[in-house]
Structures are given as C-alpha cells and as structure tokens.
Amino acid sequence: MQSNALKRLLVIGMVILWNVLCPVWAQRTTSYTLVIHGGAGTITRANMSAEMERAYHQSLQRALDLGEKMLAGGLPALEVVEKVVRLLEDDSLFNAGKGAVLTNAGEHELDAAIMDGKNLGAGSVAGVKTIKNPISAARAVMEKTEHVMLSGSGAEAFARQIGLEMVPNSYFSTESRRRGLKRALEEEKKNTPNAPQPAAGISSVRVDWKYGTVGAVALDQQGNLAAATSTGGMTNKRYGRIGDAPLIGAGTYADSLVAVSCTGWGEFFIRMVMAKSLADRVRFGNQSLVKAGDELIQIALPALGGDGGLIAVDRNGEPIMPFCTEGMYRGYVRKEAGSDKVKRVVAIYKD
Amino acid sequence: MQSNALKRLLVIGMVILWNVLCPVWAQRTTSYTLVIHGGAGTITRANMSAEMERAYHQSLQRALDLGEKMLAGGLPALEVVEKVVRLLEDDSLFNAGKGAVLTNAGEHELDAAIMDGKNLGAGSVAGVKTIKNPISAARAVMEKTEHVMLSGSGAEAFARQIGLEMVPNSYFSTESRRRGLKRALEEEKKNTPNAPQPAAGISSVRVDWKYGTVGAVALDQQGNLAAATSTGGMTNKRYGRIGDAPLIGAGTYADSLVAVSCTGWGEFFIRMVMAKSLADRVRFGNQSLVKAGDELIQIALPALGGDGGLIAVDRNGEPIMPFCTEGMYRGYVRKEAGSDKVKRVVAIYKD
C-alpha cells in the first residue's frame, strides 16, 4: 500500500513537472518571424499629419498582432501571410483592396500574388476588378488549379465559380483616391496640353509618387517560409499595365531559404527580377540576407534609375526591410529560439 | 620622278594589302551566336511524317538564315531576336502568331516578351488577340513606354495607337489548331462527363501535349545579349491564364552574361523563375552554362513535376538547348573568333 501510494505520488509529480516544463521548453525553442509593409515612397514627416501617422501605426500594429497570434499558435506561414495581407487589403489606408488607387479610366484594377516556400507553390491574379480580396484569389489559383497566374475577367469568373466574395468595383473607392486621380489627370494635362492621347500614359507615371502596395513574409514554427503581395498598382495607370506585385520572382517570391515581398516602381523590380535576385544571392552568392538586400535596394536599383523597397525573412528568422525612398510603412515581430521575448518594430520614415 | 612613282606604288600596295587583310582579320575575330526553338513536347519520329519533318527543318533553317545574315552584318542582338521571332510568328507551323492554338472560347490569346541584356530593358504583352506580331508589340512596350508589361485590350489599344499591324483574331487560325481544340474539348468531355463547368479548366491541360512556343537568343558582334519569346499558350486554356513566356525572369531573360528563352509547361517555369535561375547560377553560383542548364532542366524541373526545355547563350557565345521532353524544335548558328567557319545545327528529336 505504502509503495503504491509512493508510486502514485511519483507519477502525479512527473505529470505536474511535465505540464510546467513543456510549455516553458516549447516557448524557449520556438521561433518565428513576420515582416510586413504597406508601401514605400515619398513618405516624409513634412507631408504627414500626426493623426495620419497614428492611423498608419495602428494599422501596422493590428496586422502584426494578427500575424503574431497565428504564428505563436503554430499556424503555417502561408496561412499567416494570406490573412495578414487580407487585413491590409480591407484597410482603406493602403493601396490594395479597399483604398486602391484609380486607373486612368477611373476604375480599380487589382493584382496579387502568394508563394509557399515549402514546395514552390505559387498563385497570382492580375487586373481583377470585383474580387474583394485578391490575395485569397491568388491562393485559390495556387491550391485549386494547375495554373499559377490568371488575369482579368477570366480570373474573376474563376473566383465567382469557387465562391469567393465579389464586390462592385466602387467598393474599393475612397475619397482620397478619387482626389489622387483628379490631381494626376490635371498634372498630366498641364504637362502635355496638346496631347489628348498621351503616348502610353508615360507622362503621369510619377504624379502620385507613393507606392501603396502591401505585403507580408513569414517564417513559421515548422521552419517554412511564405510571401504575399497585393496592390492597386499606379494611379492613372492604363493600357492594362501589369506591375511587379503579381509576378512570381519580381515582386513576390519564397523558397526554402528566403521569402520576399517588394514595393516600389514596379517596372524596375520586373527588369531586375528583384525577389528572385535576392533569394539567389543568398542561395548561390553566399551573401547574407542583409548584404544582398542592401546591394540590390541601395545600389543596383538606384543605379538602374528606380526606387522602392522590400521586406524579406530568411530561414533563420532574420528580417530585413531595406528601401531607398523617403519612407516605407513597415514592421516586424520576431521570436527567437532560446528567448521568451518577442521583438516588435513598427516604422514609417528613414530615420 | 622615279622616287615619286615608287612612293605611289608603295601607297597603292598598302591600300590593296589593307583591303585584303582587314576583312580577313575582321572575319577571324568576329564572333556571334543565334539559338532558336520552336517548342518542346511529345515530338517523336512515330508521330511525325517525313513531309512534316522536312517542313519543320526548312522553317528552322530559314530562321537561322535570317539571323545569321543579320549577325554577320553586325546588327544588334535585340534586333536579331525580334526579327527571327517575327518570322517564326508568321510561320503557321509554330504555336505563336499565325498558327497559335485556340483557347477554350475558340479564340487566340497571344503572349510575348523581349529583353535586352545590354541595359536590362524589357517589354512584354499578355493576352493580346489582334496584334499581328506580338513580339514587336513587346519591343514597342520596352522602347516607347515606361512600362514593361501591358495586357489585354489595353495592350491592343497601345499597339493600334503606335501604328503596329492589327489583324482580325481569325487571322491566327489554322485548320490543324481548330482540330486540336475539338480534340481537347472531346477529351475533356469524356474525362469529366458530368462537369459542364470543369473547375478551373484543369482536366484538359495535358491534352495537346506539345508546347509550340517560339524563341530566340543571340550574342552579337558587340558582345551584347538579347532574348525573345512568343506563344499562343496552351490549347483550351481559359480564365485568362498567363504562362511563363511573357514573364520576365520566368520564360524570357537576358543580362550581360546570359540570354534565355524557355518552352514547356509554363506553370513550372514560373514557379522556378527558370530563366533568371539559369542566369543567377552562372553569375553567382559559378556554374558553367551547360551544367546550370542541365541541372535545372534535367533534374530540378522533373523533380517538381514539370517538363520542357530552354535555349540559352552566354557572353562567350556558348549555346545550350537542354530539354526533358521527347523532342524540341531547335537549332543554332555559331561563329567563333579565330575561325572562318560558322557551325550550324538543326534538330528535332532527342537522339
């Protein structure tokens, strides 16, 4: 009897110890990182009210809150970047989903892409006008079709068919974006008074000089990486212009070593195949993520005549957020193995 | 007088010598390479008549003739790859321009891209239906706009505006492609009898298992590289599917070291960012072009579940044409410095 009671006590003691130690051990060994951006451009203290600044900070914090909770709960990076980008799409502050900029025709044409570094799975949509959350359509293209990239009304037909939420194009409009297009059109008219049909809409490209793309990259507790990007493109764009965001390897890329999401003057990011360049410099060039990011964004991109920024994370959870514009809406949360603390950064300006 | 006559004789002699030696010297030091493809797929001796084989050989030889003449004449690689791809677009044997396959809707939707390795200039069009030569539209996007990629009716409006030749969509049709779509639709119906709305058109993707993309890459006498690709995509495609051909870095890429044009199951080439991967393995991975091409096409691509091939040339003029399908319409001309001979290869099957 006595020995039985002792045994029972021992077992109970071990169970208690197990239940106390395991979470502590798990907490200490798990690691994850989420990095987000809300676009790069001429974002300076001079042209930002305290109220707007607060609003952007709140939006970025909210996105990090959501992602951190998901990553801490062990959810896969792919799921996290999709849901975080959805939140930013629904947020009218950013040029993606609700709040997207207007094309020359006064419409919204949205692009998005997602990539799963675990298996190089990828999906993207370009030029869609009535899908509420383009990033979820991109994920559906990846998971429910053998295709990677669907465009225009075909992509919308697919989204409708699988039951994604559809909205009228006007859903995406905000007063501020309507003013933006009006300014762009006036500016264009002033610059080219005798050009009722400006050649290829070049003149207006630089008018609304802020790139409100949104993006997220994550490393999950299983060590997998994923990237997602969503955008409304450039104010006053025309001719069915497609930027870098929906192009795998240009604006969005993830493999087993690096996940990347870009924001900036899309044409230069396409020509440099920016996201893939970063990944390959790390994989083949033996460069650190920090060095590769700096060389591409601070040296190679301006040398070619472009600007913008990117966010990336490697399989060690190292986050980078380089940009060569005045500002970039950005932030990250990082939990390192061997530490209980989660580091969190949110920033807008260069300094 | 005598000394004057001697002088005159000496001068005449030198002029003659100059005029004889210079071309010989130039001939011996110039080098250039052109590589072309007309698509990879299930191309076997068993399903090819002698007549068809002859026709394909003739078409490939004609394209090499044109390109070789241009390169020998000192024309830039960019000009050469555009004009060679134009010729292949106009040739109804290949799935690009005239002779393009039909979409599920019974239409032609064409994609093309071009890249200038000299300055990373790039242009592309996707989903165009009435531009006679999509590759020339891609070049115009590169040279006449600040954009890289235009799509659909917007790209067509641009092409019309700058005066490119427009044609009715039916111009691209051939009897053989109409039969191809009919077969694909019948096959699809047989495989999914109860699916009047097949989910995302997956079932039919593998029916017409030949990828008739066309492409050209060249190294010119100035040492510059360029790449061009043009395609009608996949038979029975729908939902505005965009393949790898018009995506810079996926199906088409050129920089100062390597020029690449791909053909195959586009989705896998997008996910691998194939063309840029090849260039980066050479640039950062210290791999030879041959090794990089073999590793990507013979190992990495099949491992992911895809197939196809690519053509590439490096700045030394080395051509490669790896593929992992039964056949690939392909060929090259190469003139090496220090030699008077131009090596020419045209082939279809694996052996």
Report how far apart the termini of chain A are.
72 Å
CATH topology of chain A: Glutamine Phosphoribosylpyrophosphate, subunit 1, domain 1
Quick one: biggest sheet of chain A? 9 strands, mixed
**Could you state the oligomeric state of the chains shown?**
homodimer
User: How many H/I helical runs of chain A?
Assistant: 9
Q: What is the highest CATH level, the class of chain A?
A: Alpha Beta
Residue fraction in strands of chain A: 15-25%
Total strands of chain A: the figure is 14
Order of helices and strands of chain A: HEHHEEHEHHEEEEEEHHHEEEE
Q: Could you tell me which chain pair has the largest interface and how many residues each side has? A: A-B, 52 and 53 residues
Using the 3D structure, state the CATH architecture of chain A. Answer: 4-Layer Sandwich
When the domains of chain A are counted, the total is 1
Residue windows where pLDDT falls under 50 for at least 5 positions of chain A: 193-209
Helix vs. strand class of chain A? alpha+beta
Question: Overall pLDDT of chain A, averaged?
Answer: 89
